[in-house]
Amino acid sequence: MTSTTTQTLLRLDHVSKTYGEGESSVEAVHDVSMDLEAEKFIFLMGPSGSGKTTMLMMMGCLLRPTTGSVHIFDEEVSSLAESRLPHVRRNRIGYIFQGFNLFPALTALENVEATLNLKGIRGDAGRAEARNLLERVGLEKRVHHLPEDLSGGEKQRVAVARALAGNPPIILADEPTGMLDSKTGRLISEILRDLAHKEGRLVFMVSHDNRITGLADRIYHVEDGELEEQ
Ligand code: ADP
Ligand code: MG
After folding, report:
1. CB of residue 54 inside a 6 A radius of ligand 1
2. What residues contact residue 67 under an 8 Å CB cut-off, 6+ apart?
3. Ligand 1 pocket check: which of 17, 44, 45, 53 to mutate, most ligand atoms within 8 Å of Cβ?
4. Nearest ligand, CA 48
5. What stretch of H or E contains 117?
6. What is the residue-wise DSSP string for 14-54?
7. In the prediction, which pLDDT does 4 show?
8. pLDDT in tens, 56-68
9. Quick one: what percent of the chain has pLDDT higher than 90?
10. b or e along 199-215 (b: 16 or more beta carbons within 10 Å of the residue's beta carbon)?
């Protein structure tokens, strides 16, 4: 029997997140469910403060939901012991943080190498793989530059290379084009789209950039922590 449906890699089931307790508590995400498949380039759009980063962090096992569950492949990660989470993050997730979040004192190569080291790829193998990943994002001529000597687009390429460390099947990106001009933003988005379409990954990207929505396979909109699909 053949099937044309692609595999669900990440699933949110009635996920909510409340920060704090009592009168000062804030419900940042309310009852969000979604099924996210391999090979898809999916956008999450919404105004500032609508819960996008909170949602992404729960997908990336950086934050636990208050209620509801998160599944990565067939594993319910939202109820895993804290000690098991680094393993999931290391093997399944590449995360591009809001802002570039590079180590300012490390070169492009060392930034990628540091992430590889954290994922257990060390020594000569780590260095060679860091070079390889920077080449893949077109940065082979900039490997020894510090972040301050790189343009915004180049810094974001380093962040993409870093997210590819360890070859994760899921890439989560928090406003990766937010600090870039339109042309550079589009280039970065095209790199991310290719990681989905040509390499079979799930790429889920937070954006409020209307110029690049044409690249997405699916767009979710979030308003006050609640979701609607478009
Ligand atoms: P977005 O990424 O869409 O701008 P966030 O997920 O960062 O939204 O924030 C959603 C809501 O949750 C906002 O009201 C924000 O102030 C609040 N919030 C975010 N992080 C925290 C936190 N650590 N503690 C308390 N409130 C938070
Ligand atoms: Mg945010």
Report:
1. yes
2. 14, 15, 16
3. 53
4. 1
5. helix 108-118
6. EEEEEESSGGG-EEEEEEEEEEEETT-EEEEE--TTSSHHH
7. 57
8. 999 999 999 999 9
9. 83
10. eebbbbbbbebeebeeb
Ligand 1 lined by 189 (C-beta under 6 Å): no
Joined together, the tokens standing for residue 223 give 């308003």
Two structure tokens written together for 123: 């020594």
pLDDT in tens, 161-213: 999 999 999 999 999 998 888 888 898 999 999 999 999 999 999 998 888 88
Residue nearest to atom 24 of ligand 1 (CA): 19
Give 110's pLDDT tier (boundaries 50, 70, 90): very high
Output the CA torsion sign for 221, 228, 96, 141.
negative
The owner of tokens 């105004």 is 47
* 197 burial level (CB within 10 Å; 0-12, 13-18, 19+): middle
Give the whole-angstrom CA distance, residue 101 versus residue 105: 12
| Token representation of residue 80 | 């895993």
Q: Which atom of ligand 1 is nearest to the CA of 98?
A: 2
120: β partners: none
**Size (the chain), residues:** 230
Instruction: Count CB atoms within 10 A of the CB of residue 88.
Output: 16
Residue 49 Cα to ligand 1 midpoint, Å, equals 6
Closest-CA residue, ligand 1 atom 14, reads 49
185 C-alpha to ligand 2 centroid (Å): 17
CA of 130 to the centre of ligand 1 (A): 33
